[in-house]
Specification:
Beta Polymerase, domain 2, 321 residues, Methane Monooxygenase Hydroxylase, Chain G, domain 1, 16% strand, 9 helices, alpha+beta, seven-stranded mixed beta sheet, 59% helix, 2 domains, 7 strands
Length: 321
């Protein structure tokens, strides 16, 4: 069994050591790296200063990348995670060399933190314990992170079902905000995951003196398949949300049309009343029925007949349905 060394408050080193072999593997986990951590890694492992500066906690790379140096491989990847109900990108930097894997992150990816905690408790379950290869350990970490994306996909699916229920229960206004939130989350996941396949395909060519190229190609090929599957699920969810949005807008427009129709019919029905009231309110000298004993009731009857006539006309044209 290996052991854990606490180098500083932000740096932990897990030594994966199988007794049957003469060498071991170091997993250096760095959380919220600052200038002290950068200085330690530069002196200890001779990493490129520009790569280390890109790993500082307050620096965020806009795109993933993989850079091959003489003695190590530098890798930046992003993975989606939930924060306050929305999807954000969690960034991870990897320095991969023979016998070492340095992982720098901000601690906002539970899958990575949980995997490191599990490895500290029991290393026998790790594939890397059998091979003591940094390439295998990198594969296991990426496998955990990619599989954690399925949880986000499942949450999106549940939200889509909830929106569908809201729409067909005539709660269109409540559905609007949920559709917008779903769209934002799906778009963010797509932005985060869109370059993963290309990066993982490059990693299929990674070499290790401890693991056969065929096995590494198969392992990283599995990661590429995960990436493709996640992208297909995102496409399907995007299409479903677009359909639900169109349906919701159609129902909202139909509801608005019905309201406008009702208001229009009401205004047209009231129009004869308003017209006659305006005419008989002109106070002209020789107005009909004004001086009649039952003039008020006659005028009122004419108004009602006019409104009744409008209703009959609308009913005949089938405009009331």
């Amino acid at each position: 069994m290996g052991n854990l060394k606490k180098i500083s408050a932000k740096i932990e080193k897990l030594i994966i050591d199988r007794p049957e072999t003469d060498y071991d593997l170091e997993w250096i986990n760095v959380t919220d790296a600052g200038s002290k951590e950068v200085d330690y890694l530069r002196k200890k492992y001779k990493f490129n200063l520009d790569h280390l500066r890109a790993s500082v906690a307050n620096v965020f790379s806009q795109r993933p990348m993989v850079i091959e140096e003489d003695t190590y491989l530098f890798l930046i990847l992003h993975f989606p995670t939930f924060k306050e109900g929305r999807v954000i990108a969690g960034e991870i930097e990897f320095f991969i060399s023979h016998g070492h894997l340095v992982v720098l992150h901000n601690g906002n990816l539970p899958a990575l933190s949980d995997f490191f905690e599990a490895a500290k408790k029991d290393q026998n379950t790790l594939l890397a314990y059998q091979t003591e290869s940094s390439a295998t350990l990198l594969y296991e970490i990426l496998d955990r992170l990619l599989k954690s994306c399925y949880d986000l996909m499942d949450q999106n699916s549940l939200n889509i079902e909830e929106v569908e229920d809201l729409i067909f229960e005539q709660h269109q206004k409540d559905a609007v905000s949920k559709i917008l939130n779903l769209r934002r989350n799906i778009i963010n996941i797509r932005k985060i995951m869109q370059n993963h396949k290309n990066i993982l395909q490059k990693l299929m060519l990674i070499k290790s003196s401890l693991v056969s190229p065929a096995l590494l190609k198969k392992q990283y090929g599995n990661l590429v398949e995960h990436s493709k599957r996640i992208w297909e699920m995102l496409d399907n969810q995007k299409e479903m949300v677009d359909v639900l949005n169109d349906t919701n807008e159609s129902l909202l427009n139909n509801r608005l049309s019905n309201i406008m129709k009702t208001l229009t019919l009401f205004s047209v029905i009231v129009f004869p009343l308003t017209l006659l009231a305006a005419i008989f309110g002109m106070n002209a000298k020789y107005m009909p029925f004004v001086d009649h004993r039952y003039g008020f009731w006659i005028i009122l009857l004419i108004m009602l007949i006019g409104s009744w006539g409008m209703l009959r006309y609308f009913k005949k044209k089938d405009w009331l349905n």
